[in-house]
Specification:
Structural class: alpha/beta
Oligomer: single chain
Strand order of the largest sheet: 4-3-9-10
Distance between the termini: 48 Å
Mean pLDDT: 94
CATH topology of the largest domain: Rossmann fold
Bound molecules: adenosine monophosphate, zinc ion
Helix content: 40-55%
CATH architecture of the largest domain: 3-Layer(aba) Sandwich
CATH superfamily of the largest domain: HUPs
Order of helices and strands: EEEHEHHHEEHEEHEHEEEHHEHHHHHHEE
Strand content: 5-15%
Low-confidence stretches: none
Number of helices: 15
Radius of gyration: 27 Å
Number of domains: 3
């Protein structure tokens, strides 16, 4: 299996630290609002990576945090006049609902920054003791980037290049810094903000230290894969490396994976630009599996532009898959109890070739676009070669194979109940309209269609009621 590593800029062979096991850490969202579909891209992609490892029989320990203490959360709390924890707890709950809709498996652990403060105090102290951090006059603790020889190795930047673009320290109000690139590990509280006691000042952690600490606690000093969106390469992940490796003396992550942006009108979707759509808004119009299919239709390292046309095309794709699965289910009851014939043996060989195409695509740096096209070829194969006359074994092999691969992609092989309900409601409304227009032929046609779907109608004084047969 090959993985493109941001650090080496090569597709590297995947060799886990421990045979049969994968330890992954994926930076999660800051929870001050509903997540937008840009945030959903890494969630969907890395969940698919995890699912592929599971399919290959690996034991996967998957950790993804929620950043629940941050300026934006505090600002939202002030605006609503509530405690910041009210904001973060609310949006963690909402984020988990969205994740469920997108079939994203809950992480093995979803640590919260606010619950991990003791570990952060400990790591910051170790950095100070090792000469990698220093305390400024006001109690702010900074990381000393000049103390870490490899600083810049992930983002391929050089310290002399004045990477963060800060020309003078005075402009930034951070005159106490030794170097413009030094970053905050701990900062003093401001009036009305949440804070924790520390040896340096009452305050709260910087963002970067959170991930180093949570990753170490739940996965150990070294991990296989660290993931996130490409905006995290610098400074967030560069700083995580500086912290973690300065303390452990070991290579922090074996492979660094970064997804490209989800764009809208070719501009990065972000909260700050205001050009975002939340996952929740999308869910009002579409089954979120359609969003998932849309995301997986491009390679994760290619930018992806959101558009209504692409969503409609993903909707049609999901429909094609679900119709095929329904048909296979129906045929399972009708197919023949007999040995496979020669033509069917050939069909199974073609099926196997497509499974290989799926696997080799996924193993080529998780090319989900090609893996999806293997699944569509499989759907086509099922549609043309499986009939009522087929041997039962052919039907069941097609069905099982498709289910397994759909599971890797995180697509449910059956229609979700609510989408079915919405479809039934729409047909009933159409039937009522037809009756009103005295188009009884169309009304009867719809009733028959509903009967075929296993829906029984009852005309009552309060209107039409329906139930499943
Ligand atoms: P944030 O809440 O901004 O820290 O982002 C959480 C995750 O979403 C990070 O991995 C970001 O890199 C990722 N992310 C944010 N916006 C986008 C976008 N437009 N496209 C792809 N990934 C994004
Ligand atoms: Zn992080």
């Amino acid at each position: 299996m090959k993985i493109f590593d941001t650090m080496t800029k090569y597709k590297e062979d995947f060799v886990p630290l421990e045979p049969g096991k994968v330890r992954m850490y994926v930076c999660g969202p800051t929870v001050y609002n509903f997540i937008h579909i840009g945030n959903a891209r890494p969630m969907i992609f890395f969940d698919t990576v995890r699912r592929y490892f599971l399919y290959k029989g690996y034991d996967v320990n998957y950790v993804s945090n929620f950043t629940d203490v941050d300026d934006k959360i505090i600002k939202a709390a002030v605006e609503e006049g509530v405690d910041p924890s009210v904001i973060s707890e609310r949006y963690i709950k909402e984020c988990k609902k969205d994740m469920e809709g997108m079939n994203i498996m809950p992480a093995t652990t979803h640590p919260l920054a606010t619950q991990e403060i003791p570990g952060m105090l400990e790591m910051i102290q170790q950095l100070i003791d090792g000469g990698h951090a220093y305390v400024a006059k006001d109690g702010t603790v900074y990381y000393r980037v000049q103390s870490f020889r490899d600083y810049g190795k992930l983002s391929h930047k050089n310290l002399d290049d004045n990477m963060s673009g800060l020309r003078t320290l005075k402009v930034t109000g951070e005159e106490d810094k030794e170097d413009p690139n030094d970053f905050v590990l701990w900062k003093p509280k401001k009036e009305g903000e949440p804070y924790w006691e520390s040896p340096w000042c009452d305050g709260r952690p910087g963002w970067h230290i959170e991930c180093s600490v949570m990753s170490k606690k739940y996965l150990g000093e070294q991990i296989d894969i660290h993931g996130g969106g490409e905006d995290l390469v610098f400074p967030h992940h560069e700083n995580e490396i500086a912290q973690s490796e300065a303390v452990s003396g070991k290579k922090f992550a074996k492979y660094w994976m970064h997804n490209a942006f989800l764009n809208i009108d070719n501009v990065k979707m972000s909260k700050s630009l205001g050009n975002f759509k939340t996952v929740r808004q999308i869910s009002e119009q579409y089954d979120l599996q359609i969003l998932r299919l849309f995301m997986l239709s491009a390679h994760y390292r290619s930018p992806l532009n959101f558009s209504a046309e692409m969503m409609e095309s993903a909707k049609a794709s999901l429909e094609r898959i679900l119709t095929c699965m329904e048909r296979l289910k129906d045929l399972a009851g009708k197919a023949q109890e007999r040995e496979l014939n020669a033509a069917e043996e050939e069909t199974l060989k073609s099926l196997e070739t497509l499974v290989q195409k799926f696997e080799s695509s996924m193993e080529d740096d998780f090319n989900t676009a090609d893996a999806l096209s293997a699944v569509f070829e499989m759907v086509k194969l099922a549609n043309v070669s499986v009939t009522e006359e087929s041997a039962k074994e052919l039907v069941s092999r097609m069905d099982e194979t498709l289910r397994k691969l759909l599971d890797v992609l995180g697509i449910l092989p059956e229609r979700k109940k609510e989408t079915l309900d919405a479809e039934v409601e729409a047909l009933i409304a159409e039937r009522q309209a037809a009756r009103k227009a005295r188009n009884f032929a169309r009304a009867d046609e719809i009733r028959n269609q509903l009967t075929e779907m296993g829906i029984l109608l009852e005309d009552t004084r309060e209107g039409v009621k329906w139930k499943r047969a």
